Amino acid sequence: PEELLRRVEGKVWEWVIPSADLNAARQRYLVSNTARRSDGVHARLLGETPPDGAQPVTANLEDAYLFCLAQHRAATVSPSVEAGVVA
């Protein structure tokens, strides 16, 4: 588990956004968790670069698993699918 956590260290962010922006955030970022609160949606994001206003947070095993899974999927996508060509 420690190795998985090291892989995602420095790549987990919390971003508070309005509820109306949640779908757009999910299209642009890998969202591992959300919590609706009085000040907006607290979205937990995974990625190399945070959006403006996002704060770094400590990674957990769920973050590490989702990040590794996303990297694996990106590495195994066939070129035709990546180009938008569906057989």
What does this structure look like?
By secondary structure, the protein is α+β, with helices and mostly antiparallel strands. The chain has one domain (2-74). Helix content is 39%, strand content 26%. It has 4 helices and 4 strands, in the order H-E-H-E-E-E-H-H. The chain has helices at 2-8, 22-28, 61-76, 79-82; strands at residues 12-17, 30-37, 40-46, 55-56. A 4-stranded antiparallel beta sheet has the order 2-3-1-4. Helix 1 packs across helix 3. It is globular, with a radius of gyration of 14 Å.
Q: What's the N-to-C terminus distance?
A: 38 Å
Pairing-aware structural class of the strands and helices?
Answer: alpha+beta
Q: Helix tally?
A: 4
Oligomer: single chain
**What is the residue-averaged pLDDT?**
89
Features:
87 residues, alpha+beta, four-stranded antiparallel β-sheet, 39% helix, 26% strand, disordered C terminus
Any chance you could write out the topology, listing elements then pairs?
Layout: H1 2-8, E1 12-17, H2 22-28, E2 30-37, E3 40-46, E4 55-56, H3 61-76, H4 79-82
Antiparallel strand pairs: 1-3, 1-4, 2-3
Short description:
The chain is α+β, with helices and mostly antiparallel strands and 87 residues long.
